[in-house]
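Mods, move this if it's the wrong board.
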Amino acid sequence: MKMQAFAGRSGEKVLLYVAIAVFSVAAVWLASFIPNADWYGTFDAAGRGIFQGHSPYEQPLYANPPWAVLILLPFVVLPPPLARGLVLVTTLLSWMYIAWRFRAPKLAFIALLLSPTAIGALLAANLDAFAMLGIVLPPAVGLLLLMIKPQIGTGVAIYYLFQSWRERGAKGLLQTFSPLLLVAGISALLFPVWISRMQSSPEIIWNRSIFPVGIPVGIFLLWLAIRRQNILLALASTPFLSPYLTFYTYLVVQIGLLDPTVEKVIRRDILQIILCVLLWVIMITFRL
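Not the wrong board. Structure tokens:
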């Protein structure tokens, strides 16, 4: 009887794994048909060029740090449509993991997914979701991900600056920031074009920053994050401090507000529903 029960459980596990595999393949295939703004024109070409001995900066719109190419390589070994589909599925899974990690209510997460910022991020197929994953990694490693998009990671970097000094002083600062500084320094030497491209003015037509008007909001959220030792609030602060970002980058604020401490002021599901509706009104009114 025990052997039969064990065999039954093993069979159920195999069926579950097969179902997950089939669903994953189907999801990637279906996602490959969804249009995108950034993947084919910039990231796919930059990643594939590496295998041909080309610099990613031969793509005129590629302005991310050189180490961001490492994120692209696992995707570009696939045919372009499947690579784009896998990026979309991975983006969704990244958001789901962050929401699960911080115990976000299901309704709050659904409202977030239905917002124009989330839909815009999926259609853009940029690297935002990969940068956000830096908050669930050890600081020294997480900063390497967060800073592939400074308009996402700068607030968290400042947060880590205070946290590292508070916990371990100068030694803590060195341990936390030395990998990022080392990699950035080597990258600047090998690819000086990266620095000049970061300093160049981006296309103003895509800029949806409210800088400098949003600075007080960003500083308040960052102060609150440092005071309460809350990394999600630090994440939410960055878009208000950035002079350049696209409309869908404000998804970072929504994800930051999935933090459980928000419940002290308002239920997270209600807040996310309000944000979803508000963002749709803003997008439609101003044709963003």
